[in-house]
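2024-03-11 09:14:02 INFO receiving multi-entity request
2024-03-11 09:14:02 INFO entity count = two
2024-03-11 09:14:03 INFO echoing inputs for audit
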Amino acid sequence: MRLFVYFGIVAIVFSSCKKKATRWQSDWVLPILTDTLSLAHLYNDSTLSISGAQINIDLSRTLLDIGLSDIVKIPDTTISQQYQSNFTVSNVSPGFTFVNSVKTHALDLGDILLKKVRVQSGQIELKVYNPLNTAVLYQIELPGVSQNGQVFVQNYTVAAGTVQNPSIATETINLSGYEIDLSGQQGLEFNKIQSKLTLKTDPNGQTVSIFNNQVFKYEATFENLRFDYAKGYFGSTLLADQQQFTLPYLDKITGGSLSLPDLSLDVKIENGFKMALRAQIEQMNATNTQGQSISLNAPSIGPSMFLAPAVGSWNNLQPSSLLLHFDANNSNIKNYIENLGAYQNISYQLQPNPWGNTSAGHDEAFANSRLRLKVSAQMPMALNADALTLQDTFALDLSQDLNKTHVTGATLILDATNAFPVACDIVLYFMKDGQIMHTVVADAQLASAALGQIDPQDGLLKKKSKIKIVLPPELVADLQVLNQVAVGAAFATTDPTTGLAVQQAIQANAFLALQVQMQLQTQIRP
Amino acid sequence: MRCLFILFFVATQFAQAQQTIVLDTYGHYNSTGVRRQVADAFFYGGLIDSSQINQSLTKLSARNAFGLQMGFNAQWQTPWALSKDAKNWSSSYRWVLGAGIHQYGGIHFSKDLFGLVFQGGLPYMGDSLDISNLRVESTTFSKLGFGLVNNSTQSSFLIHFVAVHNHIAAALQKGTWLQYPASAQIDLTLQGEAQFSGASPAAYGVAFDLDYRFGSAENDEAPQQFQFQVQNFGIARSTQTTQYNLSGGFQYAGYSFAQWQQATVNELSDAFLDSLGYEKSAVSSWILLPAQFQLAKVINWESPQRLEAYYGAQFMLRQTYTPLIYAGAHYKVKKAWQTGLGMAYGGFGGLRVQAYSAFHFKRSQLLLRSDNIALQNGASLYLQFRCDF
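2024-03-11 09:21:47 INFO inference complete, emitting structure
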């Protein structure tokens, strides 16, 4: 018994001795980032061009590009034709034709009145029902639907069925390349499609009776129709919209100003449809991140503009166009852009056939008919930035277990070679749930190329910088609770002699080469 | 285990013939250069300060060793003879039962690797570090067996059933680390392989122990007895061994913005492993147990001489173990207390002082021994209790 007591005491003593963690300090340097930022990928893509030793902004963008299928649409539509005898017909012999009728269907296309279309893609699903107790031969003909002069005709032999459970035959047919005449029997109507149903009992079948409760029918469903040709009246439905969009990066600007050289902006509206078009830019304004708004003022903002129908057809189609020019002489375009409005607001109207059906149903559109809105701008790429501050916030998840191997101190080291004439001051804000807990300022500025010297190898003005961003131990200790980091970068095009912000042209082939290393003091706990 | 205890208890109550219990336990760790405080921090916890790391570095050579051995053995020499016929030679042999658990861990490493691990890469920017010839061996196993012991010579032979609880065998034949001061680019080359058998028990096998005593007869005027001892000589078969191979290298100078944006950390680390030729596979393997061979002079506890020399040599079937030799003087203070002092060299460390004391009681004896009483780069303790009844 005494032995057990001794063992018990020893066990308690040893179990109360909690082993401390083995640990030691070690210092590491890890390369994080090696990259060169340049504008090379923007050359020859309708954004930038090089002119001598200078970069020009030669922006060309298509903002709106819509075609025939966007304007003229036939929604998925089902037409149906059926036959039901009013009385019982007895002793119907095999091969007897008992229905041969034509039906005209009206398509509901709003104010669009179509005479003719050609299907680029889409299909028709046919579904045929036979309630008779012998096979029935169905012939479905769509007289206005043809391909290469051949009218759309489909024949089906549908097996015997019953009133309660009619036999059903289903088939889906691709309509690509088919022309659809929607002008009716006389050729004077619109949106009309005809169908003809012929029914014949099975020539090899039995003699049957047709009762008045037997319904013979078919359904034809047009699906996903897109056209490469349309003729008719395309309506005058007003396309009015107010669009709001945010320009990337500009919403990150939190302060400072930007001054640009004189620039011009062209907006070109193209009408590739053989119909008249009214276009109106009602208003255009922009609000920057400081809440300052500015409206674009120009003679072409506000009033309606009319575009004539395109001329020609198919391969020789000539769109009509309207060119709107904005420059310092006729607008406040420079101020508008220098306001750095991240939040853009534009109200516009587009209206086909503003005077109604003046073409008497002869609007036409072809496969290559487009309605386009193009923007182009030209200016030398130069800027005057004065403490222009961009700030962006990123999620941070660097939680570490202090009881395991963890970082006790860290320093970010940036080695940069800058060929842009812009200096940059970097500040990091470490936050918890949006509340700034630690602010870390880089120990030096990323210097502007204007402070450097010309590299004889490539003829570029460059400046090297080495920047350290020290994350103090108290910040590192808080890493497990910090969940956001905001990176603030203040840009300035400072004149090296005067110290004032001046306009600086960006030299051709300018780049920013960056190497980022992280120096870590770690406590290793195996 | 409970059945064994009951069997042992009953046997001790009713057996009239002589029987013996031998219990021994040991723990050694040592290094050719790493200071004891560094190893102690791993055993007992605590901070390894930079001065200890620096002092270790100054003592390390290009190739270094560190190792650890721990274990416990129990042996019951039963009263039951192989034959009751006194005329038969086999009557001088008794059955013996044994059990034990052992841990062997050894590592060979370069000075550069020690510095890199304990100081980090920063102090070695611009230096090409050689981390080749790294070898790590670790085996933990238990055994249970039976055999025979000779009553007069104490020679014995036991065969054991062995269960290996974990086994690690890793080797890095080639390894270099270079980090450029300007760009911090890391050039790493690795070529090696490792085997881990981690499930418990990871493997089963057989081993034998041999204790062979030889030399001049006891009735000589100055008898010289020697002992050739083999322990844990055997193999085990593992069907759940994970094999890792590395053969490649990479140059890492940081990723580009696009790479950071488009790839996940896992994808980037996978790319690292791919460039290092990392492969992982499940294999079956044979595990050679850390057998120990010892040839030593046996001290005659009954000798009338007060001063006597002792010496011996020992090696293990492990590449991380250097053959150990030792020698010293045995002094008989009095019949109940005999002691010894000597030197040892090899194993996992260099030259060190060893000492022991043995206490003889009426039916039992207690032996305490340390192979490193100055605690030079390690520590050592061996305890043995023997009871004859």
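2024-03-11 09:21:48 INFO post-check: The interface with chain A takes residues 41-42, 44-50, 53, 117-123, 125, 179, 182-186, 252-258, 260 of chain B (CB under 8 Å).
2024-03-11 09:21:48 INFO post-check: Residues 1-5, 7-15 of chain B have pLDDT under 50 and may be disordered.
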